[in-house]
Structure formats: structure tokens, C-alpha cells
Design brief:
- The chain is mainly alpha-helical.
- It contains 17 helices and five strands.
- It has a three-stranded antiparallel β-sheet with strand order 4-1-5.
- A hairpin with a 2-residue loop joins strand 2 and strand 3.
- Helix 9 crosses helix 17, helix 12 packs antiparallel against helix 13 and helix 15 packs across helix 16.
Length: 438
Amino acid sequence: MVLLRNFKNIFLISELRKKLAFTLGIFAVFRFGAHIPIPGIDVVALNALFSGKFGGGFLSSLDLFSGGALKNFAIFALGMGPYISASIMMQLLTIMVPSLEALSKEGEYGRRIINRYTRYLTLVVSFVQSFGIAVWIERQQNIVLTPGWGFRLSSVLFLSLGALFVMWLGEQINTHGIGNGSSMIIFAGIIARFPADMMRVFEGVRLGQTDLLMVGLLGIVTIAFILCIIFLERGERKVPVQYAKRVIGHRVYGGQSSYIPLKLNPANVVPVIFSSAILQMPLMLTGLLAARWPNINQVFMDWFSHEGLLFNVMNAGLIIFFAFFYTAVIFNPVELADNIRKSGGFIPGIRPGKKTAEFFDYLLTRVGFPGAVYLALLAILPSFLGRVIALPTMFSGVSLLIVIGVALDTSAQIEAHLIERRYEGFLASGRLKGRYVR
């Protein structure tokens, strides 16, 4: 009942109502574009291809992030993929290129320039990805109605413009909606697939193809994964920071205590994306050489099968590696220790400067290792359980991580809006503290 009262409070603030309505409208536009196929494609044959031979492969992972648009070869088939890839590349380049690193420290002006470079890089990535997908689909039998450069160029044009338009939709959510636009677009695409999965399970039960015991077991496993993800995503190591007192004129400043939160999984799903991209390179190379050496192609397909032990072991190892790598890129212990020292702060029991940086490096290693293992298990365990227990359907651990993470961030933003408007918040008692402001 408390949650229902808090949910009702959302609609008592006109500004929040408008933001939610605008975000839902963007979702509708995105879902509409995900069902408009590019001309020259047999959509039925393409869906059969994804359901069969490539049902659990890398293209299905891309299709997950696009909300099923890739399976329809729609104009939004690339989704937020090019923008996310470009953003990750720019983050890495900002660390490695001194001029970009200096630009990132110039405040709002530097952020605008880096965002502009990210958009340009998004266009380049979308061209490369759309051309690769168009060539791959053209090589499949009975998919493309009129193969040739006309199909390739039109596919590149439609897919690239669609990717840029989806990027623009995410920016509009940041500006006029609830915020966190790119994640919200991915969230909408993943959520849109859930009703179809549930209907497939219910249809299997109705036809007698699925046991009710398996359905109940699927529900228990899903709830267990959700609870585990929520618990671990909220987990953090709080590092206490004490600020010394400073006397300026006749006033005393500082002396308060604060803390720096170190999340268990600061890299989020970025290591999974890196690992999937690297592991698909052998399959792409063998696909190009399949016509000349079919025996070698079959050997590599067996080694790097998504259901094979070798693929899952390598996938887990790469995820753990990239979790540490990306955390080291986005988290600089030396810079953080220097900022604390300049602010007049210190960690109790730790000397400022070099010792503080070493302490942060020690904590990141100890806290990051269980987070990296948790992320690796989340990526490979659902598919393993689906094969061992023979469940009617199986969710993706990465999709659950994205959905739960976005839901937690969105609830926190709604909480901030409600508290700002003198409500007790979305997750508190739900009582109104004062008159709302329209």
C-alpha cells in the first residue's frame, strides 16, 4: 500500500507527469521504428534464421539490445549499439590522448566538444556495422530478394540514419524526459521482448508441451537472479573521508566527515560487450574462409560454439579481465587521492598523497574481483542452466542486469523529484509533507 501511495504521488506533480509522458512517447516512436523493415528483405526467412542457426549467438545479443529490430532488419536494427561503442571508445581515448584528457577537464565546454566527437564517431561506427550486417545477410540463402550493391548501399543508408535517429531520441530523453536516455532506450527494447517470451511459455503449457513444474522452476530461478542482482548492484564499499577544519576570517570551515562509495561492479555491462566483440572475431574470420576450407570452418565453429565449454571459459576470463581494465580506465587512484588532498581531506589512518593512492588501488582490486566474478557468472550461468535443466525459455543475465540497473536509477531520479517537491519520496512512507507545486 505504501508503494501504491508513492506511485500516486508521481502524478500530483505536473512537471514529473510531463517528463514521464514524454519518455513514454519516445518509447512509442522507438518501438514503431523497430517494426519498419528495410526494403528487399524476406522478414519471415530472417526470423527463421535467428530462431534456428543463430538463436544463441552474437547476433541474438545485438538483437536483444535493439529490442527485436535486428531480427526484423528494421531501420532501428542497430539501436543504441553504435552510440554505446563510440562512447566507450571516447572514454578510452580521453584517458590515452593528452589533448582529449585536457579537453575533458575544461568543464561544460569540454564536455560539449567531446559529445560532438562522440556523435561523429557514432556515424563512423554505424557505417561499419551496417555494411557488415548487410554483407552478412546478403550471404545467407533466400534472405535478400535482390542482392547487390543497391541493397548494400540502401541498407547502410537506412541503418546509419536509424542509428543516428535513435541516438537523438536518447538525447531528447536526457533533455525533456526522465533522464538517462541511452539506457532507457535499451531498457524499452528489452522490456518489449518479455510479453512475447511469456506468451510462448503459456502457449507451451496450453498445448501440453511444457510442464508446469518447469514453469514454476523458471519463476524461482528468475526471482533468485533478480534478488541477487539487486543485492550486488547496491553493494558498495564506503571509504570514510575526514576534512580538516579551516579558519577563514572569523569563521570555521570544514571538519565534517564524508565517504567515497566504491561500487562492487563499477564497469556495469561494458566488459560483457568487449568480451562478446572479441570472441566473435574467430567466427567472423571462419565465416569468410568457409567457402574455401569448410573443414577448418567446422572445427572453429565447434570450438567457439556458444554452447561449448571453451567459449564459456574464455568468455568468463575475458569478462574478468575487462572488468579490471575498464575500472582502471575510469577510476584513477592517484587523481582521486590528489583531489582529496587539495580539498583538505584525508582517510583516517592513511597518509595523504601516495599512501592514499595505494590504498585506493588496494581497495579497487579487492572490491573489484568479486564484482568481476559476479559479472562473468551472470553472463554464462543463465544459458548453462537453460541447457542443463531444459527450462521452457531462459532469460539473459545481461538483460536482467540492464533492466534492474535502469529501474533502480529511474526510481532514484523519481525519488529526487518527489523530495524536491516536498514529498517524502518514492520509497518512503508516501505521506505528503506539503502542498504540491504544479
